[in-house]
Amino acid sequence: MQNILVSSLDSTSDISHIDQMCEIIRYVHIENKKVEIKEPFLGLFQLTGKKAVDITEDILKVIERDGLDITMCRGQKCDSASILARVHSGVQARICHLNTKALFGSCTNHYLNLCGVNTFETVPLCVILFWDLRKFVRVFLMFYAQMDYPSDKC
Question: Which residues are 24's β-sheet partners?
């Protein structure tokens, strides 16, 4: 792996209301003069707290656990949640303090998702389609919650 260009992080709570963060990195892979941009999903990890200092520590532990070096990071992406994006005391500011080359950019996927959701809610056929899809997902999640899976495998 060459330089990590962007570390993309997003948090949400799961069905059991445990806050988890999704870890995705984007990097440049060069082999035999062939240049590829890779963007693997590295997994989910549980957050130990909701404060910027706690989330930053969790992120740094996971980056180290994955054998990555925060000093190789050249960018950070996250949604515009204030705990993450706050300029002076948010997670992005704390990571920039450790590595000034890890520039922050808001995640355009979140904005695109919000735009799509709001647009689709105004088209009657889309409202019906997404209502049915939500019901399907809800039933699937209820079924999944009843299954006895080891938490380290999910």
Answer: 8, 41
Locate tokens 């992120």: which residue? 59
Instruction: Give start and end residues of each alpha helix (H) in 66-107.
Output: 82-85, 91-98
Positive or negative, the CA dihedral 63, 68, 72, 76 is negative
The token pair that represents 56 in the structure block:
């930053």
| Domain with 138 in it | 111-146
Q: Are residues 84 and 132 in the same domain?
A: no
The owner of tokens 């704390």 is 94
- How large a percentage of the chain has pLDDT more than 70? 60
Same domain, 89 and 132: no
Burial class (CB in 10 A: 0-12, 13-18, 19+), 55: buried
Report yes or no: 85 and 107 within 8 Å, Cβ to Cβ.
no
pLDDT digits 0-9 by tens, 112-144: 666 666 666 667 777 677 677 777 777 777 776
